[in-house]
């Protein structure tokens, strides 16, 4: 399965992500987040409810996206389905998200 990323123009801008977010797809995800948020200068909501694999490379990119947003005075909002694998990984690494 491939990573699918879809930007819903808002406000807020929502980047919906589905599929595996791991070593094979993290670079695609990072490029999409950077483009959608213009390097963190515009806030974006990351909707990870469709993510079925969240590996360490994906987690690393999430932390970098959060740092970019913070550097520009924005809060990175992350959505994850309650009890999902993505939510469990986010809990494990201490990355704040909004359970859906």
Automatic annotation (TrEMBL):
State the species of origin: Luteipulveratus flavus
The protein's matches in Pfam families, at most eight in alphabetical order, are given as:
STAS
Coiled-coil ranges per UniProt: none
Superkingdom is Bacteria
Q: Where is the STAS domain?
A: 14-100
Question: InterPro entries from the entry?
Answer: STAS_dom, STAS_dom_sf
Protein name (database record):
STAS domain-containing protein
């Amino acid at each position: 399965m491939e990573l699918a990323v879809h930007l819903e123009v808002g406000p807020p801008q929502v980047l919906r992500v589905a599929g595996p977010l791991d070593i094979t797809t993290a670079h695609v995800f990072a490029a999409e987040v950077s483009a959608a948020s213009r390097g963190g200068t515009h806030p974006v909501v990351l909707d990870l409810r469709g993510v079925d694999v969240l590996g360490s490379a994906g987690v690393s990119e999430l932390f970098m996206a959060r740092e970019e947003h913070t550097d520009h005075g924005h809060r990175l909002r992350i959505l994850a389905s309650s009890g999902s694998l993505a939510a469990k990984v986010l809990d494990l690494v201490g990355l704040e998200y909004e359970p859906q």
